[in-house]
Amino acid sequence: MSKFLPVFLIWCVAVFPQQGPNATVEPSAEGASPCEDFYQYACGPWLAAHPIPKEEVVWGRFDELAERNTAILHEILENARPDGGGRSTVTREIGDYYEACMNSALIDQRGTSVLDDELARIAQVDSAQSLLAEVVRLHMQGVNVFWGFSSAPDNQNSKVMLAEMGQGGMTLPGRAYYFHQDERSSTLRTKFLQHVAAMLVALGHPADRASAEAAFILQFETKLAEKALDRGQQLDPTKTSHKMAVGELAKLAPHVDWRAYFKAMNAPPFQTLNVRAPDFLKGMDTLLADAKWNDIRTYLSWHLLSDSSSALPTRFVDLNFDFFGKALQGAQEIKPRWWRCTRFADAELGEALGQAFVDRTFGAAGKEKMLAIVHEIEVSLGQDIRQLPWMTEATRQQALVKLSKLNRKIGYPDHWIDYSQAKITRDDFLRNEQRLSAFETARELAKIGKPVDPSEWDLSPPTVNADYRPQHNDINFPAGILQPPYFDASADAADNLGAIGIIIGHEMTHGFDNNGRRYDADSNLRDWWKPVDDQAFQRRAECLIREYSSFDAVPGIKGNGSLTLGENIADNGGMRIAYMTLERLLDQSPGSRDKRDADGLTPEQRFFMAFGLSWCQNQRQEVARNRTLTNEHSLPRWRVNGTIQNMPEFQQEFGCRVGQAMVRAPACRVW
C-alpha cells in the first residue's frame, strides 16, 4: 500500500525522411544517423516533443498508452461511484472502493486513529507467541515484515501448487540500496533516515525518539539485507529452489514456530515447501534471537505505518511521496488523487475493473488478429530452433516439444476472480485495503496442494505489459497493451510485427533464455540440455553479457550485462523471430516487399522503425540509476541499440558499414 506508483503516458506523431533499402540513410533532423545511434534517430523527434511532466518519473510510449487506459478506467470508476440502486455486484465493488479512496476529507478527519488498535497490539508484543500472532495479523493485512509466505507451482512437479517462503521485511527497493558506497547511495540512505523519522514524528513520536528509531530501522534492515538474494539471484531458479520438509525449516530458523504460523495463516495442511532463500531465513532467525522486544516493536510499527501510508491522511501521503517519489525516482509533483485511486483500484480489484475495460477496448476481432500473429511468430521460432547450427538434435527436439506446449493467454481471462468475499465499504479506505489483502492472501494460500490452474492470470486486463511464466510455460498479453501504437487490428504486418510482434517473440524467447531454458516442456526444473549444447549456449550468452556491460547506462555506472542477460536474450531473439515472420509473410504476398509508405519507407524499414519507436522514453536520472542497479531490463536506449547492433538485416536495410556504432562485429546471437 505504501509504494509510490510510477507513472505512464501520451500520444505522438513522428515524421521520417524518405529513404530506400541498401542505401546510406541521411541523419534525422536532430543530426542522428541510424547507423550511429538508431535509438536517437527513431526517437529523437518524439523525445524532444515530449519532456517529462513534473508529476512523472518517466514519459514514454508505454506510459502514454497506460495513461490512456487509466483515463478509461477513471471514467468507469466515476460512473460506478454513485450509491444508487441497480448497480451490479462488480460495479458496486469498484465504485465503493473508489469512493472510499477519493474521500480524503474523511481520511484526514480520522487521522491515524485507524492504526490505533494495531499499534496497541504491537505494543503488547513481548514473547515469541505474541510476536507470531502479530506477524500473522500484519501478513494478512499485506504488511511486509520479516518474510513472505505464498504458493507457487512445484518446480519438480509443475502441475501441483506448493507452499513457498521468501525473503521480505525491507523498505528500500533492493539489496544494493543498503550496501552501495557511492555518493548517491549514501545520500539516499541519509534521506531514508530523515523520511523514517519524519513519518514517526507525524505519528506522534518525539523528534529525538523518532531519530533513534529511524537509525535502528536502517541498521536492522541492513542486517536483514546482508543475507538477502540480489535481483539477479532472485531470477535464477537454481538459486531459489530449495524444497524441504517443514521440520527442516524449523531447524533452519528455530526461533519461529512455523507450524503454528502456517495454521494461524489458515494454510491447508502440508509437509513440504519451497524456501527461496534459506540463508536469508537463517540470518533473520539470528536477528530475532538477538533483538530486544522494544526493537522488534519499533520495526513492526514502522512497517505498519509505511505500508499503510497511501491510505492515511495527506501529511503521510506527502511524506511518502517526498522519499519514494522525489528522492528515489526524481518526480517533482505527486499525481492527482483520482489517478492514484484509479491505479489502486486496478491493483486491488483488477479483474473486477478489467471487465468493463475489456468491453470498451478489446473485441473479438482484435483477439482473432492477435492470435493469428502469435501463431505466425510460433512458426518462426520453430524454424529458428530447427536451423540453429550450434544445437544437437536431441536437445533441439526437446526444445520443439516445449514450444509445442506453449500456452497462450490473450486479452483477458476466461474466468474472472470473484471478490465478493471481501467486504468493501464506501467510508473506510484503509480497512478496504486490509480486507482485500487478506482476501488475496487467503486465495493464494488456498491453492497449496491443489492442481495448478493454467487459466489463471497474473496481470490485470488494463495492464500495459506482457510476460512469460516458466513454471506455466505461458505467454500473457493483457488487453491493456493490445492497443495502438503496439497493436492495431487494422495495421499491416510491418507495423504490427515491429511493435507487438517483437514483444511476442520476446516473451516466447524467455522460455529459452538463461533462466527459462532450465524448465522442460512440462515446466519442471530439469536439465534437459546436452553438455555440448549448454556450453554452446553459455559462450553465446557471454557475448551478450560483454556487450551490454560495455554500455554507459548513467554517468559513472555501466550496464549490468549479467543482471539483464535474460531480457537481452529475449530482446535479440524476439527481434530476429519477428523479422523472420515479416519476411515469410512478404514472400507470401507478391509485390508487397516493393511497396513504400508515404515517407518512402520499405516494409522492412517500417518494421525497424516501429521497434525503435516502441521504446522512446524520457526518464529522470534517478530512475535510470535505480533501474540499472536493480532491474533486469536494460534501459530503453540500449534495448534498441543493443539489439540493432546484432542484426545484419537492419544494417543491410539502412546501409550501415562495418566500423559504425550500429554494426557489432562479431554480432552476438543466441536464438
What descriptive keywords fit this protein?
671 residues; three-stranded mixed sheet; four-stranded mixed sheet; 54% helix; alpha+beta; globular; disordered N terminus; Neutral endopeptidase, domain 2
Polypeptide structure, described:
54% of the residues lie in helices and 7% in strands. The protein is of the alpha+beta class. It has a domain at 144-308 and 315-322: Neutral endopeptidase , domain2 (Neutral endopeptidase, domain 2), CATH 1.10.1380.10.
- What's the gyration radius in Å? 26 Å
Number of DSSP-assigned strands: 11
For the largest beta sheet, what order do the strands appear in spatially?
A: 2-3-5-4
- Average pLDDT, to the nearest integer? 93
Provide the low-confidence segments as ranges.
1-29
What general outline do the C-alpha atoms trace?
A: globular
Share of β-strand residues = 5-15%
In CATH, what is the class of the domain at 144-308 and 315-322?
Mainly Alpha
Described by strand count, sense and barrel closure, the largest sheet is:
4 strands, mixed
CATH topology of the domain at 144-308 and 315-322: Neutral endopeptidase, domain 2
Distance from N terminus to C terminus (CA atoms, Å) equals 40 Å
Helix and strand composition category = alpha+beta
Proportion of residues in helical segments: 40-55%
- Give me the number of helical elements: 28
| Corresponding CATH architecture of the domain at 144-308 and 315-322 | Orthogonal Bundle
The CATH homologous superfamily of the domain at 144-308 and 315-322: Neutral endopeptidase , domain2
